[in-house]
Amino acid sequence: MKKRMVWRRLRRQVGIGLVFATVAGGLWYFQESEYRDRLTWKGTPEWDSMAPLSWHRVLRNDGFLVGWSDVRVSPLWVSYLLHDDKRSRIAERPDFQRDWRTIWPVQPTGYRGSGYDRGHLAPNYALAAVHGRDAQQASFLMSNITPQRPDLNRRLWQRLEEAVMDHFVPRFDQLLVITGPIFHDDFSRGVLNRVGFVEIPEAFYKILVVPGETPRGLAFMMPQDVKGDEPLDDFLVSIDEIEARTGLDFLPALNAEQQQRLESRIRTEGWGLEQVADLPGRYE
DNA sequence: TTTTATGT
């Protein structure tokens, strides 16, 4: 008799709890996607459901988003918008910081003696100049950092980032940048190929998109072992190729026809690449 | 005013 009443009450409470959790979760998700939409264009990268290595969760920062993989212990992509409205002075470089959202401990000191640089994906300068101090500090979170060989990070990659800020952003006014690592096809190669817990990529990609009715796109893929003074256009690839290598789908909210046009082949017309492809780096 | 590591 009494037992049945207790059961009924319990069931009702669980029911109310579930409804509450669902509503709260829905509200959270709604608000979170509003925040994300403000930081991107045509959605954030989505993963191929058949490829667990491309699964990730989104970390939201001031000025940029990070697709974080707890399997690779690495960001799979970062995404940020740039516009031609730069601050004239930017603050000093902050210290690298542990990001407590990553679960696996990735310490700022963890790269010491590894032969790899702590390479930014979302760059210090661009984030600081366009999005301000909080974004700059967030760019030094270890969730935004991947192991990069010094000749890539300080030379070729630096030249590409400089071309983005000094050439492409002024040229087009607004730019969406998606950038990230590319890993060896064979996951077993990555199990021990790590700096601390962080898997070491084979190469890196950077996708530039000019938002608009008929968007323009340009994409690069650069391996770890470069000298650093190569012409930037040696590394052009189609976005489709990057999708094939990463298991990610970029700009998922763009309609199929536009995606096909934008992603299937390399189109350099209008970018003025020849003006920047051979510019020397800042730290030769 | 654009990158980092250095048992400094």
**Mean of all residue-level pLDDT scores:** 94
Q: Give, in order, the helices and strands.
A: HEEEEEHHEHEHEEEEEHEH
- The domain count comes to 2
Question: Helicity range of the residues?
Answer: 25-40%
Question: How many distinct beta strands?
Answer: 13
Which architecture of the largest domain does the CATH hierarchy give at level 2? Answer: 3-Layer(aba) Sandwich
CATH class of the largest domain: Alpha Beta
Number of helices: 7
N-end to C-end Cα span: 84 Å
Low-confidence stretches: none
Q: Give me the CATH superfamily of the largest domain.
A: Extracellular Endonuclease, subunit A
CATH topology grouping of the largest domain: Extracellular Endonuclease, Chain A
Name the structural class: alpha+beta
Strand order of the largest sheet: 2-3-4-7-10-11-12
- What is the overall shape? globular
Major beta sheet summary: 7 strands, antiparallel
Radius of gyration from CA coordinates: 21 Å
